[in-house]
Design a protein that fits this description.
Its cofactor is Mg(2+). The chain has a single domain, classed as Helix Hairpins (Orthogonal Bundle). With about 130 residues, the protein is mostly helical. Helix 4 packs antiparallel against helix 5. The chain is flat and about 75 Å long.
Length: about 130
């Protein structure tokens, strides 16, 4: 019997393609894995805590459901962009372990996308709160 080489022992196996209902469950597992990876990031945990608290506060203040829904969608978009930013950082570190200007630009652009959505979430939250004063 032939012994596997060192590279064969450590190389990950590509999972077989699945279709139909099995694909739906596989996609859900991949999404859960992505969420587990995302919450390893301090920024994502902070965004989850602040966004979750903001949604609860809006509910406690009696904000109409449509406004809470709109804010919630914007908040989920922030988390999605944070996930993409994390993916950019992970891949950039993989393909460019040495410092490079292009890698810096990629990471800075991902960070900008997150910052813009934090601004949009903050503005939306403030507008909703101001609407309560009228």
């Amino acid at each position: 019997m032939t012994q596997p080489t060192a590279s064969q022992k450590t190389s990950p196996q590509i999972p077989p393609k699945v279709t139909g209902l099995a694909h739906l469950f596989a996609a859900a597992r991949y999404s859960l894995g992505g969420f587990q990876r995302l919450i390893e990031e301090a920024a994502a945990r902070q965004e989850l805590a602040i966004g979750g608290a903001a949604i609860i506060l809006l509910w406690v203040l009696g904000v109409p459901g449509m406004q809470i829904g709109a804010f919630s969608i914007l908040f989920l978009l922030l988390l999605a962009i944070e996930a993409l930013n994390t993916a950019i950082e992970v891949l950039t570190d993989l393909v460019s372990p040495e410092w490079s200007q292009q890698a810096k630009h990629a990471k800075d652009l991902g960070s900008l996308a997150v910052a813009l959505l934090i601004g949009a979430n903050t503005a939306c939250f403030a507008i909703i709160l101001l609407s309560l004063l009228n």
